[in-house]
């Protein structure tokens, strides 16, 4: 193949138009890379200059440059001149180049590009690479390109150089193997008896050994040139992808040729880069280390590195990039597998708690670590024999005890589902051992086993229920994952098998467990969740009705023994599941349920009669009898239709008696309200599902009307729980029985529609203002229980506000009532900001004009409150005034509400509020501003949202209220009028704009302009031979530019290799930045470069990229650093094991003294 003419101009195939340049061949990928390289080698043998020119243009074109190096340039110009010339040929309009272009074609190109370099070296390894021409030219070119300020050149050449280095490392490894084999053959021949020894063969072996040694020396020189000329600079390049390439490849070298590269001299680069500010670079570091720690034979060489960088790796388990955190945990797990003593207890504890992480990959990785550390059996056979001797069916008893102990010590008892999910992939055998779990709970401990405490039993039951749920549902708990994914056929089969297995086991075990723990409400509530995961067909298919009867009997005993809400709801839900019509056991369960409800209802009816008869003379037993039976019925009424028992009548009598006598216990009132509510909803369900008669509708309307009246009266109850319950039920029923009830073809239900009158609306609004918008008591903030109570109280208040807001949104309560809510937006933003903003958004969608009027009303209310607090003279810096302006700014900014500006034009006339501002005249005279004039300052917040023609309309309306003297006023008291008038004239005719000097205004404007500044685009330009490549920097990125210049030294280049002529890209120091620089902290963390630990920690949200420019050193600086690094970092391949003695041990490059005195590295 000879794609270039002698003058370097590409040829084209006139017949088929096939690609003829190396770049085109590699880009298309139609030819086998082996044949492409063989063709090039053949071309090189014919005319090496032309072939090399083709290779040079290949690298230039792979960088995206349209220029072509001609033969005369190649022969007469230096590399730096050629690169400068090619830089001028770059496309000005695009910053893309092949390695960054999207799409499968360019992704394949990257792979082909790397493969071409590897195949080229592999095919040339026995002859051409030693001709002192090819490799010298290529390495010199790549070194020059890697120092270019043009990102495309730097990125492409670095990738090529690193792949070239990897190929050379493979060649060096092969040479080492051949040397060992030759040495072995030589020793074997030399040890033969003199008569049998072949001298000619010895001479041939000696000659071959010498040749191999010479080749190895040449390869060492090539690798030294690439490592010191490219790697040591580019591993800290400004571009994260370039740094990642370097770290990825050095990891390959250390794994491929560990005898030469797996030592402290190279590991330190990976260790230092663990502190990189870009996640993709840290990720490459961890994956490179994982490849090393996977091989346990390499652990002795990694021991010093582990000791120095272990703390950093452990801290990366909390990395803000989840992918990095996952790989850090996996690396810690590999370290644990290789050496139990490498990690301290504190290190392990830092990983343990991550099993509760909301990010599932992190949690699963931590679960794998936890399994390896605590739950893996070291000698399974011995443990099984021990379990059999103790009479246990499973050897997992001790592991389950340890799991429970871990769960208790973690003190996150509400997160058992997260713990189980984290361990599910690594410890399924343990977590699915339900026989062992029930054995621990039901049977007495044998000799050598400790008795489970009450807390341990509760925790084991909770964990067991979570494992059952995980097996039956086959998806992570809430908060983990993005939703239910489609199971594969294998996963579906496993799910079915697990469900059958747990059903068959717990059908028999659950009644026994309930019998043992029926007095413990917490344990029973957990155990009663198990039936919802049963395959209920097993009861009839396996003729296990007797176990069903045993379960129903135990549930009945639990209902009779407990009045806790969670236990009763669990029993009710279990009955509901067992009563499903699709199962044949439904009739048997329905009979048992009806018998239970009959008994409870009879007791409830008699208890109510006794309580009402005794009235104020009722004792605690009477109250308890009513409350206990009512709580049971309420819990069951939630999931079951109990209307045939007519519970509403008894509950209504209790409520009326409480209102009339004022002595009803609050718990009875709350339960009676809730039970009545359920009864009404079940009646509505019956009516909507069937064809109701007029009498049915009238009867239900009468019931609803009477209940709403009772709830309205309860709003004035002295007991807060009663008031809150009544309010919530009022809101719910008004929603259910609103005008939307007749939608969807249900016009026959028109008689059931209720519209709240103004009195009820006012009472609901008053309740919200009195019970929601209140300040919490800030005392005892440190008390955990007090904090928990405050969070619970806030949750209740949010529910109250949300319930009322729904009434406003669906036009059940008049929209002006929302004005009293909108005005609290800024003050209570942290507590209710999301609810209020969503309410405003929804109401605006339904009626823009009315919403605008409501918003103006809320702003006027705020203004009047401010006026009352401060009087006629308003403090412009007051918190209340800022909140006033904030309400207008935040609630009406289109970016908050995602509204189209054109569609809201009809609301313009109602938003000005001008009439309110001029509503009253100043009693001191016309020369004084109206009392409400300051309201115009609030209106100015909306001016920028108006269209140009609307601004003119509003301005004309403003002029009607302005007298001629007002237009001439320039005092500060008239500033609201001046600023508002100017805001309306902005973007229009500015000739009449009123002028005023306001420092505060200009300051605010300056701040806003800074915050809204767009990224600065620096275009490529050529001035006097210097080139700056196309880059896009944000202000945040450029702000750390000075951090590169905080030290006087730069990274020392190892070895005494002659420095190639490079194009310097060192940054010029900004005088302002130089004034802000400071010396690095010499007490930096051992094991990391001063430049990394000198700055902010990795976990900070606002962390900036660690590298912001190319950071290549000038030639003079390189020479200085060469002196310091003399004989410390020259690549020296290990001697043949059979020929040389072991080389002298290298110095510890992690030694703190050497770190401070020799490696004076200051990137920041």
TrEMBL record:
Gene Ontology cellular component? chromatin; chromosome, centromeric region; cohesin complex; nucleus
Please verify whether the record's keywords include Cell cycle. Answer: yes
Specify the superkingdom.
Eukaryota
Residue ranges annotated as compositionally biased, kind Basic residues, are 1008-1020
The alphabetized UniProt keywords are: Cell cycle, Cell division, Chromosome, Chromosome partition, Coiled coil, Nucleus
Question: What's this protein's name?
Answer: Cohesin subunit SA
Report the coiled-coil segments.
195-225
- Record carries keyword Amino-acid biosynthesis: no
An example molecular function term from Gene Ontology annotations: chromatin binding
């Amino acid at each position: 193949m000879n794609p270039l003419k002698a003058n370097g101009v590409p040829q084209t195939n006139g017949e088929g138009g096939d690609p003829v340049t190396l770049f085109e061949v590699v880009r298309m990928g139609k030819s086998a890379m082996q044949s492409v390289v063989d063709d090039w080698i053949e071309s090189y043998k014919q005319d090496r200059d032309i072939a090399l020119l083709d290779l040079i243009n290949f690298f230039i074109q792979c960088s995206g440059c349209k220029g072509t190096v001609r033969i005369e340039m190649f022969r007469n110009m230096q590399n730096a001149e050629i690169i400068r010339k090619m830089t001028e040929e770059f496309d000005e309009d695009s910053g893309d180049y092949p390695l960054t272009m999207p799409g499968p074609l360019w992704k394949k190109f990257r792979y082909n590009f790397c493969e071409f370099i590897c195949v080229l070296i592999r095919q040339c390894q026995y002859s051409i690479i030693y001709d002192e021409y090819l490799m010298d030219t290529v390495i010199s070119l790549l070194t020059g390109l890697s120092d270019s300020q043009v990102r495309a050149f730097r990125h492409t050449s670095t990738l090529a150089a690193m792949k070239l280095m990897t190929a050379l490392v493979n060649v060096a490894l092969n040479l080492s193997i051949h040397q060992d084999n030759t040495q072995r053959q030589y020793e074997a021949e030399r040890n033969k008896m003199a008569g049998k020894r072949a001298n000619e063969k010895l001479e041939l072996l000696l000659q071959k050994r010498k040749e191999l040694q010479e080749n190895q020396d040449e390869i060492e020189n090539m690798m030294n040139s690439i490592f010191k000329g490219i790697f040591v600079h580019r591993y800290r390049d400004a571009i994260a992808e370039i740094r990642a390439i370097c770290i990825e490849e050095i990891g390959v070298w250390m794994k491929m040729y560990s005898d030469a590269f797996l030592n402290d001299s190279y590991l330190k680069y990976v260790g230092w880069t663990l502190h990189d500010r870009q996640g993709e670079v840290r990720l490459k570091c961890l994956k490179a280390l994982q490849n090393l720690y996977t091989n346990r034979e390499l652990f002795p060489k990694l021991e010093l590195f582990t000791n120095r960088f272990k703390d950093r790796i452990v801290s990366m388990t909390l990395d803000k990039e989840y992918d990095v955190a996952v790989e850090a945990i996996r690396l810690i797990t590999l370290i644990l597998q290789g050496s139990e003593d490498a990690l301290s207890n504190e290190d392990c504890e830092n990983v343990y708690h991550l099993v509760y992480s909301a990010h599932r990959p992190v949690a699963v990785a931590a679960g794998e670590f936890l399994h390896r550390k605590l739950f893996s059996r070291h000698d399974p056979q011995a443990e099984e024999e021990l379990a059999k001797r103790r009479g246990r069916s499973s050897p997992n008893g001790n592991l389950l005890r340890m799991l429970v102990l871990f769960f208790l010590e973690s003190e996150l008892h509400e997160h058992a589902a997260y713990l189980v999910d984290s361990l599910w992939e690594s410890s399924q055998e343990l977590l699915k051992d339900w026989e062992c779990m029930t054995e621990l709970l039901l049977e007495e401990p044998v000799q050598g086993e400790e008795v489970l405490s009450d807390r341990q039993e509760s925790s084991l039951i909770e964990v067991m229920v979570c494992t059952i749920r995980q097996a039956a549902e086959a998806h992570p708990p809430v908060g983990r994952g993005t939703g239910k994914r489609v199971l594969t056929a294998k996963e579906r089969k496993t799910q079915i098998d697990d469900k059958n297995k747990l059903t068959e086991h717990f059908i028999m075990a659950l009644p026994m467990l309930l019998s043992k723990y029926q007095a413990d409400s917490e344990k029973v509530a957990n155990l009663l969740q198990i039936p919802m995961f049963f395959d209920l067909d097993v009861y009839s298919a396996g003729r296990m009705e007797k176990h069903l009867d045993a379960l129903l009997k135990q549930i009945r005993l639990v209902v009779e023994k407990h009045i806790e809400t969670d236990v009763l709801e669990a029993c009710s839900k279990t009955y509901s599941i067992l009563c499903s019509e699709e199962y044949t056991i439904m009739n048997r369960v329905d009979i048992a349920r009806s018998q239970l409800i009959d008994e409870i209802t009879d007791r409830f009816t008699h208890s109510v009669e006794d309580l009402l008869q005794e009235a104020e003379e009722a004792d605690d037993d009477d109250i308890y009898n009513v409350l206990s039976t009512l709580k049971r019925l309420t819990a069951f009424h939630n999931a079951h239709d109990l209307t045939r028992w007519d519970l509403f009548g008894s509950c209504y009598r209790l409520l009326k008696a409480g209102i009339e006598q004022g002595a009803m216990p609050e718990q009875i009132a709350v339960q009676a309200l809730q039970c009545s509510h359920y009864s009404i909803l079940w009646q509505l369900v019956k009516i909507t599902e069937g064809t109701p008669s007029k009498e049915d509708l009238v009867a239900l309307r009468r019931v609803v009307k009477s209940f709403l009246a009772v709830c309205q009266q309860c709003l004035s109850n002295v007991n807060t729980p009663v008031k809150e319950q009544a309010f919530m039920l009022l809101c719910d029923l008004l929603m259910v029985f609103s005008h939307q009830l007749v939608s969807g073809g249900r016009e026959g239900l028109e008689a059931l529609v209720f519209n709240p009158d103004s009195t009820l609306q006012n009472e609901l609004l008053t309740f919200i203002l009195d019970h929601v918008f209140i300040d919490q008591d800030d005392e005892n903030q440190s008390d955990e229980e007090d904090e928990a109570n405050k969070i619970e109280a806030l949750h209740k208040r949010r529910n109250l506000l949300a319930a009322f807001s729904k009434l406003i949104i669906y036009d059940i309560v008049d929209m002006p009532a929302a004005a009293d809510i909108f005005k609290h937006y800024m003050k209570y933003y942290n507590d209710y900001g999301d609810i209020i903003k969503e309410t405003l958004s929804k109401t605006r969608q339904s009626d823009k004009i009315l919403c605008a009027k409501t918003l103006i009303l809320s702003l006027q209310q705020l203004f009047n409150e401010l006026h009352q607090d401060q009087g006629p003279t308003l403090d412009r810096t007051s918190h209340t005034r800022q909140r006033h302006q904030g309400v207008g700014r935040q609630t009406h900014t289109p970016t908050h509400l995602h509204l189209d500006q054109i569609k809201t034009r009809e609301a313009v006339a109602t938003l000005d509020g001008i009439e309110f501002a001029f509503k009253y005249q100043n009693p001191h005279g016309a020369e004084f501003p109206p009392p409400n004039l300051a309201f115009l300052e609030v209106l100015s917040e909306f001016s920028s949202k108006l269209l140009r023609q609307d601004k003119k309309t509003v301005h004309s309306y403003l002029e009607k209220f302005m007298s001629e003297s007002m237009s001439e006023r320039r005092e500060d008291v008239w500033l609201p009028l001046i600023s508002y008038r100017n805001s309306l004239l902005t973007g229009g005719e500015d000739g009449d704009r009123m002028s005023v000097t306001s420092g505060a205004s200009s300051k605010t404007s300056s701040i806003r302009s800074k915050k809204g500044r767009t990224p600065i685009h620096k275009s490529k330009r050529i001035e006097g031979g210097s080139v700056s490549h196309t880059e896009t920097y944000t202000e945040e990125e450029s702000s750390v530019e000075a951090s590169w210049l905080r030290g006087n030294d730069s990274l020392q280049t190892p070895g005494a290799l002659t420095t190639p002529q490079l194009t310097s890209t060192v940054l010029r120091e900004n005088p302002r930045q130089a004034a802000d620089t400071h010396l690095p902290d010499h007490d930096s963390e051992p094991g990391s470069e001063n430049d990394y630990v000198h700055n902010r920690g990795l976990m900070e949200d606002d962390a900036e990229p660690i590298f912001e420019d190319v950071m290549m050193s000038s030639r003079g600086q390189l020479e200085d650093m060469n002196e310091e690094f003399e004989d410390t970092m020259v690549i020296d391949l290990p001697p043949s094991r059979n020929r040389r003695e072991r080389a002298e041990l290298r110095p510890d490059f992690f030694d703190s003294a050497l770190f401070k005195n020799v490696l004076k590295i200051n990137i920041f």
